[in-house]
Amino acid sequence: MAPRRPARHDAGRLSEDLTVTLIDLDRTTILLGRTPLALDALLRDLPDEWVRTPEGPGRWSAYDILGHLIHGERTDWIPRARIILEHGEARAFEPFDREAQGRWPQDVPVAARLDEFAAVRRASLTALAGLRLGPAQLARRGQHPALGTVTLSELLGTWVVHDLNHLAQVARVLAKARGDEVGPWREYLPVLSR
Amino acid sequence: MAPRRPARHDAGRLSEDLTVTLIDLDRTTILLGRTPLALDALLRDLPDEWVRTPEGPGRWSAYDILGHLIHGERTDWIPRARIILEHGEARAFEPFDREAQGRWPQDVPVAARLDEFAAVRRASLTALAGLRLGPAQLARRGQHPALGTVTLSELLGTWVVHDLNHLAQVARVLAKARGDEVGPWREYLPVLSR
To answer: Which of A157, A172, A183 sits opposite B182 (nearest CB)?
Structure first.
């Protein structure tokens, strides 16, 4: 999808006072492209009741997590990348609304949300490829409203780890919804006590 | 795949002194059938270096976890179900070897291991359907070598949660391998500190 690039760029070659390590953009893109498939494989055919069972009172279900990921595609990753490229540190990112999906219509089936996530993620990756990022762009700095100075490389690296964070969470939430079915094996299953 | 059954059987209807809740076998089968796809989506195209990076010294990589799941199909789930059905509590299960995959050839590519897992899981589900389990069979008891008395229902419920436990682990191990790329976002990503 993205053009081939060397495995890792040492930004130190670009500027003497810059010592950040930059991500490998190809590797980033591969995993980002696979997350919708992984979630689809896991969730599409499960009973609605299972997918919508929250981890606990006031906590998220797999359905909520999917909404959170969709909202990130629309308002977080690519929009923030553009802010860094256009404004650098001069303009802080909009704060990300972690509860947005709770205000969406809840009667949209999980299958439709999976399709939606696949579509917005595809659009994000098309936009990412269109940015034609090289080492100089990846090393650019932006302002996070709470965390302070970050680089574009860190934003894109976080995108990948954020996917994995929520994949692990989906597996955990689904596991806990079946936690009363394992009997004495519970002690061998750390996912049930996280 | 498996024949339709009512959502949940209350084993109390079968025997007055039996109060265990039995799993829904259809639901169990759906998720078990999807795990190979979910792992395939996540791992097949990732660089070998990423998939083989262990979580830490002496800990497992995603590749090791995949081997562990394959070994479970061969020696744990269906073999133990058969022991319960044939011998009840009279014969304890063989202890499960959690380190078996560490002694396998390590030059088998991850893609081949993914194919292998899909094949052995398919065979397990065919065998499971062939057992034609009803509530009376699901309530049967067996002997775990360390945990003591368990039911067939608990064994099969554990199979599902065990899949989810290791899916969460795969996501976590992959995330940690990229943990140095997120900069100050680390504090928002609990998967990196588990």
So the answer is: A157
For residue B86, give the nearest of B152, B2, B26, B22 by alpha carbon: B152
CA distance A26 to A23: 9
Rounded mean pLDDT of chain B? 91
Express each pLDDT in B152-193 by its tens digit.
999 999 999 999 999 999 999 999 999 999 999 999 999 999
| Cβ within 8 Å, pair A150-B191 | no
Q: Residue A5 has what pLDDT?
A: 39
CB A72 within 8 A of CB A96: yes
Contacts of B19 in chain A (CB under 8 A): none
Q: Does any CB of chain B come closer than 8 Å to the CB of residue A171?
A: yes
Adjacent-strand bridge partners of B141: B151
Q: Is B167 on the interface with A (CB under 8 A)?
A: yes
User: Which amino acid appears at position B148 of this protein?
Assistant: G
pLDDT confidence band for A2 (50 / 70 / 90): very low
d(CA A121, CA A115): 10
SS (H, E, C) B38-76: HHHHHHCCCCHHHHCCCCCCCCCCHHHHHHHHHHHHHHC
Q: Any chain B CB within 8 A of the CB of A25?
A: no
A15-53 tens-digit pLDDT: 434 456 788 998 888 999 999 999 999 999 999 999 999
Q: What's this model's pTM, rounded to 2 decimal places?
A: 0.90
Neighbours of B55 (CB within 10 A): 19
pLDDT of B16 reads 39
| Rounded-to-integer distance, Cα A15 and Cα A180, Å | 57
Instruction: Enumerate residues 6+ apart whose C-beta is below 8 A from A170.
Output: A39, A42, A43, A62, A65, A66
Determine the pLDDT at residue A87: 98
Percentage of chain A exceeding pLDDT 70:
90
3-state secondary structure of A21: strand
Which of B67, B63, B94 lies closest to B78 in space, CA to CA?
Answer: B94
CB contact under 8 A, B168 and A168: yes
